């Protein structure tokens, strides 16, 4: 399993990780596509997680979720972690997981690696915390 702080943008479904859902945004529907954005975290970092279709109702704040074959990529000019077409998400527990909310991997500007065009590297931190899910305190 990979830690959230170690994920990088890629065009392949290869992320296997586990995290806790901290907060869910509201569900939006465009045509037949239902989506919901969530803030998730593990003990190393946080990230925005895109839920699709039935996943929007399947998970709530406090759920511990395992992602198999996930992808970290752009969705509407924002970096999000998601299951994609070949990935799988499942609830594996509730409430008992250590986590941090910074850094937020979705709030980092990623650029192509000059030494390897198939990889991305961190260029700058846009915001240390989620701008979509601001801290309550």
Automatic annotation (TrEMBL):
Q: Which SUPFAM superfamilies match?
A: Nucleic acid-binding proteins (SSF50249)
Q: Where is the signal peptide?
A: none
List the keywords (alphabetical): DNA-binding
The terms under GO molecular function for this entry are:
DNA binding
Q: Where are the transmembrane segments?
A: none
On whether Oxidoreductase is a keyword of this UniProt record, the answer is no
**What name appears for this protein in its UniProt entry?**
Nucleic acid-binding, OB-fold containing protein
Ranked from the top, the taxonomy reads: Eukaryota, Viridiplantae, Streptophyta, Embryophyta, Tracheophyta
């Amino acid at each position: 399993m990979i830690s959230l702080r170690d994920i990088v943008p890629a065009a392949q479904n290869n992320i296997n990780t586990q995290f806790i859902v901290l907060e869910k945004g509201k569900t939006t529907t465009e045509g037949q596509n239902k989506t919901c954005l969530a803030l998730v975290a593990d003990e190393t970092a946080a990230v925005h997680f895109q839920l699709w279709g039935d996943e929007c109702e399947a998970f709530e704040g406090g759920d511990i979720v395992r992602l198999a074959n996930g992808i970290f990529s752009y969705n509407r000019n924002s970096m999000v972690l998601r299951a994609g077409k070949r990935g799988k998400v499942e609830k594996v527990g509730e409430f008992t997981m250590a986590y941090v909310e910074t850094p937020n991997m979705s709030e980092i500007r990623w650029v192509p690696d000059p030494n390897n065009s198939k990889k991305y590297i961190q260029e700058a931190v846009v915001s240390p915390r989620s701008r979509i899910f601001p801290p309550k305190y």
